[in-house]
Write a structure and sequence with these properties.
One of its GO terms (cellular component) is cytoplasm. Keywords: Cytoplasm, Methyltransferase, rRNA processing, S-adenosyl-L-methionine, Transferase. The structure is a single chain. About 30% of the residues lie in helices and about 20% in strands. The protein is of the alpha/beta class. The protein folds into two domains: about 120 residues, Tetrapyrrole methylase, N-terminal domain (Cobalt-precorrin-4 Transmethylase, domain 1); about 110 residues, Methyltransferase, Cobalt-precorrin-4 Transmethylase, Domain 2, CATH 3.30.950.10. The strands form two sheets. A six-stranded parallel sheet has the order 1-6-2-5-3-4, sandwiched between helices. A five-stranded mixed sheet has the order 7-8-11-9-10, with helices on both faces. Helix 6 links the parallel strand 7 and strand 8. Helix 3 packs across helix 4 and helix 6 packs across helix 7. The longest helix has 13 residues. The radius of gyration is 20 Å and the shape is elongated.
Length: about 240
């Protein structure tokens, strides 16, 4: 696999062949970057985890390029299709439901296949909005070092074990969680990492964006249990 820092491209220029991993807005559509818009307008093919959500984004920006789904339950077939298109010299832009692909979606499988097969296909990141960096930027905590834990296991036992392993980490911990498990996660954090402050970001960049501060050991203030959550767990010193 080749990575390439390609020069800035405008919508009037031909798009070089390769796989473009494009970040899309996590809420506010105005957060999309000019590079991503150029790529979406110029690509031979756009592949998406969910074509319905991607279709809404493309419609908003009046983009009508070819759109195809890349689904987890058809990962093998969709991977082979994408590899054939890339081998034929096509440019493919991959987008996820929101944010940066490759974090918790199937494009990582496609990139891994490109690497393992040693294909001469450029893989180009097109960075953009990120709930993790947005939350860190308003935390008031030094983010160096920090660790991105993503979504922990939905099973309480495995989730608690992961949190216990984080006790020794002297840095900021970033966790994503759904509305269905946010209360259980916060209770376990306050029990297992009781000497650390917590900052919960809800619906970041959206109309009902909210940041909830929780002191070490609690209590948990009242907040709306709706939307998507980014949970930051600070160092023990961050709570002083």
């Amino acid at each position: 696999m080749r990575t390439s820092a390609l020069p800035a491209m405008t919508a009037t220029e031909e798009m070089p062949a390769g796989l473009y991993v494009a970040a899309t807005p996590i809420g506010n559509l105005r957060d999309i970057t000019l590079r991503v818009l150029d790529a979406l307008k110029s690509a031979d093919l756009i592949m998406a985890e969910d074509t319905r959500k991607a279709g809404l984004l493309l419609k908003h920006f009046e983009i009508s390029n070819a759109l195809k789904s890349f689904r987890i339950h058809r990962m093998r077939e969709d991977t082979e299709y994408a590899l054939r298109e890339l081998a034929a010299g096509k440019s493919i832009v991959f987008v996820t439901d929101a944010g940066t692909p490759g974090i918790s979606d199937p494009v990582s499988h496609l990139i891994r296949e490109i690497r393992q097969r040693k294909l001469s296909v450029p893989v180009i990141p097109l960075p953009g909005a990120s709930a993790m960096t947005a939350a860190l930027s308003v935390s008031g905590w030094q983010a160096n070092p920090s660790v991105f834990a993503g979504f922990l296991s939905p099973k309480s036992g495995k989730r608690r074990k992961s949190l216990e392993l984080m006790r020794e980490f002297d840095g900021v911990i970033v966790i994503y969680e759904s509305v269905h498990r946010i209360d259980r996660l916060l209770e376990e954090i306050l029990e297992i990492l009781s000497d650390r402050p917590v900052l919960v970001g809800r619906e970041i960049t959206k109309i009902h964006e909210q940041f909830i501060e929780i002191p070490p050991g609690g209590p948990i203030p009242d907040f709306v249990r709706k939307g998507e959550f980014t949970v930051l767990v600070g160092r023990p010193d961050d709570g002083k």
